[in-house]
Amino acid sequence: MSRGLWDSLIHLRALLGKEFLQLWRNPRLRFFLVVPPLVQSLVFGYAALYDVHHAVIGVVDEAGTQATRELLAAVTAGGHFTVRYYRALQDADAALDCNRIRAIVQFPWDFDRAPVVQLIADGADPNSAQMIVGELGQALNRRARADSIQPPLRVEERAWYNPNLDDRPFFLPGIIANVVFTSTLMLIALSVVREREIGTLERLLVTPVARLEVLLAKMLTVAAVGLFDVILVTAVAVGWFEVPLRGSLIALGLGSVLFLLSTLGLGLVISSYSNTQQQAVLLAFLVIMPLSMLSGFAFPISNMPVGMQWLTWLNPLRFFLVVIRVIFLKGEGVSAFGLEYGMMALLGGIMLLLSWWRLR
Amino acid sequence: MARKEWWHLLRDWRSLALILLMPGMLLFLFGYAIRLDITQAPIAIVQESPSGCARELAARFAASQAFQVVSSPADRRVATQALHAGAVWAVLVIPHDFHCQTSPEQIAVQWLLDGVDANSARLLRNYALAIVEQYAQDLGYRPPLRIQDRVRFNETRDSRLAIIPGVIAIVMAVIGALMTSLTIAREVELGNLVMLRTTPLNRREFLLGKLLPYFCIGMGELAVALAVAVWLFAMPLRGSLPWLVLLSALFLGVVMLQGALLSSLAGNQLLASQMALLSTFLPAFLLSGFMFAIDNMPLVLRYLTLLVPARHYVTLSRVIFLKGVTPLVLWAEAAALLLMFILLYRLTLAQLRKLGLLP
To answer: Of 3.30.465.10, 3.40.50.150, 3.40.1710.10, 3.10.180.10, which CATH number belongs to B41-138?
Structure first.
């Protein structure tokens, strides 16, 4: 082995020791490596549900017959709806106005002659409104049709990969990507900027270590943190929330490493544009927000305007999300992700080159 | 003190540009890019039955705004491969025994969904059920029950109308807390607090001077955000504007004090900004009811949302924007914000005393 390379390795080891020590010595920083990913995965696991699991609905039963009571029993039987009774529609309307109920079911007084039900949902939250109207309608129809002629057509539906249409297997793998993205990007940007702000970067650079070695040590440290986060959140998703992990772990690891290339590169570019930590934080936030909004993490890309759909091709997070979700739910191996791996490597390479050019 | 802080802000033009750029960008992004309702979802139709009725049903799916038929293979294995590869979101299979006569037996059409994105899959399921139901009725089926549904305050079911008031809350929460979280931590980090002790400045003046410039910026951003919402996104403002501004100012005050408190607790900028982001952005995004209905959450989490200022603000601003009732109906939310404001103010002053700022 040549002397230069050997020296480099020794420098790198020393620098790595310094970085890890800095990370480890600061108890508050240590706290922030573990707690945010945990909190994020728990909160997302419990809070990020689009489906209706519980809603209070108002009932105005002007008919008050056996038939309407049976229909109402069918609505509450699922356990998703709690019912409050109102004498007149105006009272229920007022309750809907001030958010006491989410929807109204109204049986008109002539229900016996013309069986019509009114469903009124609160459009201030349109997604919930659609889910509530859909579920109420299905429950009412099922009951009403139980003892009469069946419709000539029936839809036999099957949801692949997620038969109960549970929101968790969709969100939790996405959290892995998001946690890694934010934490590594912030960490690398701030660790460079902090050294520059307090002047220790200058001091490091007058020692015999090369600039590349300093950066490499920082990147390796942050990458280790990122991989640790991947493992942590995966463990929570699989162990606690019982999200299925059907694909290969090697494919997940490879995807994570390729994804880290671009987050580290991006973090370094951000650090090159900021003189203070305040600027770095703001800039990082300004980059993180749109990238995570335009990644398909919570909002499907195909719903976006076409121009924005094209823009998402520049977003490494988008490709990592595809890899992670397919691995978790559809269960594929390394060979399935040629395009995604390629794009992440390409974007990562560009980012790293750009950062090297900027920091030189 | 305020003049000094202004001076700080103006000198650091990069930060200032970022602060001014952020709300516009966020609103633009959310307003244009984020839709939960589905249009033109790619589907495949496998028509195994040659009957005219099968063609008619397929044509109805094709004509729907919700779907876009991207392939109609003869073999259902081709279609299911497309579903596995993610090229289509759903597959409609019209089986070979499908015919026009209404017989006592039901005919089943198959609707295969990609369940990975559960919310989209649920919406697609509801759309498909509605089309098939309508078709069954046109074939002469008389349902025993007729259901009329209506979505009030938002008849077109546009998700944007609900998202924009939430975005305004997020923008203000983030800007308010993030900016102020950095400002006191910087003074601590640089050791300026000790120097300030020798001046006749007291804690209240210090805090006010620190926060006032950011408050002005925040209110300016609110004005921009409201203008964009109403004029660019045609957001209806059915309630009273003065109430909205007043409650927004209160909310801004709460999140700024939150940032200041975190800042004086953290003592360094890195930690302060991390804590501010974690304690404002995530809760504002997840626990405010902006994206995910609070009713769905487990009981513990539901109570926890009461501590999130954005939750109260999102409720208030949605009601003012969409329902147009006076916020006095929701006095509890407004009172909660006021209570938080007083509490945070006291706590911040107490924390500043601990840092050695007198009197």
So the answer is: 3.40.1710.10
